[in-house]
């Protein structure tokens, strides 16, 4: 971790570019956004992550101006956006379907927004050429959208939305239509372009890996609310709820009752089983419901009882998922709980010590997991 | 072999129902009028052998086509037909486009019903519908009665038996042919394209001009041809709704055939009409072809 890391959200002096102030959006009886307040800062790559129907697309459409909030205010650069139509906002959007104009060439698609601004043709030519270079599309300038591949179309859509040099670029599931390999390449390309142009990006996605890869901050949404906003590592390492822990990556959740033990908290989770010890900055009262969440890769697995682990439980291997670089062991505890443990396959598979039905020991340190109230 | 048979079927169909009738009409147009039954000569007599056939071809000439140039009635009728067809195509487009647009923007559950309403008039006889317009447009007709009752006019307007009535009749009759292709083009359009246009700085109106119109272009072209081509040769509407000053080639053709019983001249008129129509038909086909290619 470098000290000069980009974190304007921690700086009280910094003015946010976008402010949601108690924004609600209802469609008839359905509440898409529920009293949401959130700041997004300049040059951020802000990801809205959540399952479908959580309100992330509605948030984006309100930023673009296609939907108006039922209640509350949205400010961009300090200006209330309530009466500003989409064509008067310094905001551009890259659509999920790309929405390329099929009757125009790649060049004309990119030039479309610039022409509407009434710029002279020299400026437009220069800017379009710059965009074509940035997105490596120069060869395809004269083609129509149906004559290029999906990945190229995606880049045209990006170039078109960037051409006007918006303050804010909205990306609605931008990589959804691409296959996995191309998607990963494009994610890095997106980050690269975001850095080069210094534009603020807000991306909507349901793909947690994508959000983690590209974003400076991730907002996890559920039913019209933002459950947690944090940097990808915080979201992963320190989720604030079972929902977030479960939504981001793989996790083992063990529920029980809290009991304070000095500066640590023990989770009483089953009869005749050792309590799980964890550290937390939050305070729990004794007997309170508590959830212990731990990532599979933080659970150690060994055939012999580990000597110096704060937490250790015995179980039996139920299943092994071999993924090449890693293996995930599904271990059944005597209580019926199934705990996933992940190890990197640093040795060849023939040398693997553990196999099906083996009795094994699971272990982790007291700082490996997180303790959650809900 | 099977493929050949499959290809042969439409060709046989075209030969039997298009090429042969055309050859017959062409032959009549090259013949001379005669007081006989059928009212032209020469007649082909194959039993006469080679000599008879040679005589038959020797008797054919372009006299009737020459005749068409001597009387200015004909070229005036052609010109007037073109003009009426052109203007009514534009009128039909102006009326049809907003209807197609409204249909395409209607809630999806309403679209089949609206489509049905457009097609519904086809279920009654075309002739009866034109007669109904006579009832509406005549001096004592519904329209005049209504306008008199409203007090907009003090004496009935003469609409029936004028070119106005012809335009009303044509626009009414051919409206579905305009609406359907435009509707199908608009309905396929992705709404996010309009949002994208607005997002990039278009007002609603300029988004319509820059995106909606170009994307429905093929529908507009198809609709215009579907109205223009049959309108040129239209004769029922001008004869029932039009007046003496309404000059359309379809009507002239009908009169040559049935009033004058001059089949050769009538056939010559028909052949010229066909030649005139070949140009827009080819253009229409090319438009369809281009559209299919564009859709890949």
UniProtKB/TrEMBL annotation, chain A:
Enzyme type, top EC level: translocase
Chemical reaction(s) catalysed: ATP + H2O + polyamine-[polyamine-binding protein]Side 1 = ADP + phosphate + polyamineSide 2 + [polyamine-binding protein]Side 1
Entry EC number(s): 7.6.2.11
Superkingdom to which the source organism belongs: Bacteria
Gene Ontology molecular functions: ABC-type polyamine transporter activity; ATP binding; ATP hydrolysis activity
One GO cellular component term noted in the UniProt record for this chain: ATP-binding cassette (ABC) transporter complex
Keywords annotated in UniProt: ATP-binding, Cell inner membrane, Cell membrane, Membrane, Nucleotide-binding, Translocase, Transport
Occurrences of domain ABC transporter (ranges): 18-248
The protein's assembly and partners: The complex is composed of two ATP-binding proteins (PotA), two transmembrane proteins (PotB and PotC) and a solute-binding protein (PotD).
NCBIfam families: potA
Its biological purpose: Part of the ABC transporter complex PotABCD involved in spermidine/putrescine import. Responsible for energy coupling to the transport system.
UniProt similarity note: Belongs to the ABC transporter superfamily. Spermidine/putrescine importer (TC 3.A.1.11.1) family.
Protein name: Spermidine/putrescine import ATP-binding protein PotA
Species the sequence originates in: Marivita hallyeonensis
Automatic annotation (TrEMBL), chain B:
One GO-annotated biological process of the protein: transmembrane transport
Boundaries of every ABC transmembrane type-1 domain copy: 78-284
Family annotation (SUPFAM superfamilies): MetI-like
Annotated membrane topology: Multi-pass membrane protein
GO cellular component, one term: plasma membrane
Keyword annotations: Cell membrane, Membrane, Transmembrane, Transmembrane helix, Transport
PROSITE patterns: ABC_TM1 (PS50928)
Transmembrane segments: 12-30, 77-102, 114-134, 165-186, 207-229, 263-284
Similarity section: Belongs to the binding-protein-dependent transport system permease family. CysTW subfamily.
Protein name, UniProt field: Putrescine transport system permease protein
Organism: Marivita hallyeonensis
Phylogenetic lineage: Bacteria, Pseudomonadati, Pseudomonadota, Alphaproteobacteria, Rhodobacterales
């Amino acid at each position: 971790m470098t000290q000069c890391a980009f974190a304007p959200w921690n700086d009280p002096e910094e003015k946010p570019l976008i402010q949601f102030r108690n924004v609600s959006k209802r469609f008839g009886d359905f509440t898409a956004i529920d009293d949401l307040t959130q700041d997004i800062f300049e040059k951020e790559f802000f990801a809205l992550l959540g399952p479908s129907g959580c309100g992330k697309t509605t948030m984006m459409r309100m930023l673009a101006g296609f939907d108006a909030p039922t209640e509350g205010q949205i400010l961009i650069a300090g200006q209330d956006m309530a009466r500003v139509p989409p064509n008067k906002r310094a905001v551009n959007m890259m659509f999920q379907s790309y929405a390329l104009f099929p009757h125009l060439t790649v060049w004309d698609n990119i030039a479309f927004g610039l022409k509407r601004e009434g710029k002279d043709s020299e400026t437009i030519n220069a800017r379009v050429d710059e965009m074509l270079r940035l997105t490596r599309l120069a060869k395809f300038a004269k083609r129509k959208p149906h004559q290029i591949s999906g990945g190229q179309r995606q880049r045209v859509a990006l170039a078109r939305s960037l051409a006007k040099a918006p303050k804010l670029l909205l990306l609605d599931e931008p990589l959804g239509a691409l296959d996995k390999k191309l998607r990963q390449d494009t994610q890095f390309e997106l980050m690269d372009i975001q850095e080069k142009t210094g534009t603020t990006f807000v991306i909507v996605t349901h793909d947690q890996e994508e959000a983690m890869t590209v974003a400076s901050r991730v907002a996890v949404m559920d039913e019209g609310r933002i459950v947690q906003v944090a940097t990808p590592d915080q979201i992963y390492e320190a989720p604030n709820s079972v929902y977030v822990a479960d939504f981001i990556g793989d996790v083992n959740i063990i529920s029980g009752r809290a009991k304070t033990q000095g500066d640590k908290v023990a989770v009483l989770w089953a009869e005749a089983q050792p309590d799980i010890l964890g550290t937390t900055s939050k305070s729990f009262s004794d007997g309170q419901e508590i959830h212990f969440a731990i990532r599979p890769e933080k659970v150690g697995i060994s055939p012999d009882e580990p000597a110096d682990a704060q937490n250790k439980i015995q179980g039996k291997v139920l299943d092994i998922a071999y993924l090449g670089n890693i293996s995930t062991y599904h271990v059944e505890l005597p209580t019926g709980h199934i705990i996933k443990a992940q190890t990197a396959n640093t040795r060849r598979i023939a040398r693997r010590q553990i196999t099906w039905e083996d009795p094994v020991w699971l272990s982790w340190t007291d700082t490996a997991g997180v303790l959650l109230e809900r | 072999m099977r493929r050949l048979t499959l290809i042969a079927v439409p060709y046989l169909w075209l030969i039997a129902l298009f090429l042969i009738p055309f050859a017959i009409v062409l032959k009549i147009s090259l013949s001379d009028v005669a007081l006989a039954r059928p009212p032209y000569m020469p007649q082909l007599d194959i039993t006469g052998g080679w000599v008879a056939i040679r005589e038959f071809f020797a008797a054919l000439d372009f006299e009737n086509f020459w005749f068409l140039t001597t009387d200015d009635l004909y070229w005036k009728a052609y010109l007037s037909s073109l003009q009426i067809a052109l203007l009514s195509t534009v009128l039909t487009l102006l009326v049809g486009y907003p209807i197609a647009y409204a249909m395409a923007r209607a809630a999806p559950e309403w679209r089949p019903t609206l489509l049905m309403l457009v097609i519904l008039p086809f279920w009654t006889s075309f002739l009866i519908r034109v007669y109904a317009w006579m009832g509406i447009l005549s001096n004592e007709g519904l329209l005049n009665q209504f306008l008199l009752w409203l007090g907009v006019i003090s004496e009935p307007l003469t609409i029936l038996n004028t070119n106005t009535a012809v335009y009303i009749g044509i626009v009414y009759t051919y409206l579905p042919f305009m609406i359907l292709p435009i509707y199908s083009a608009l309905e396929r359009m992705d709404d996010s394209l309009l949002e994208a246009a607005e997002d990039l700085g278009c007002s609603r109106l300029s988004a319509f001009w820059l995106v909606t119109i170009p994307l429905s272009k093929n529908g507009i072209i198809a609709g215009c041809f579907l109205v223009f081509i049959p309108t040129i040769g239209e004769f029922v509407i001008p004869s029932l709704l039009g007046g003496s000053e309404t000059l359309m080639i379809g009507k002239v053709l009908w009169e040559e055939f049935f009033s004058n019983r001059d089949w050769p001249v009538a056939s010559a008129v028909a052949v010229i009409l066909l030649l005139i129509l070949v140009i827009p038909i080819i253009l229409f086909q090319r438009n369809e072809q281009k559209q299919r290619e564009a859709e890949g």
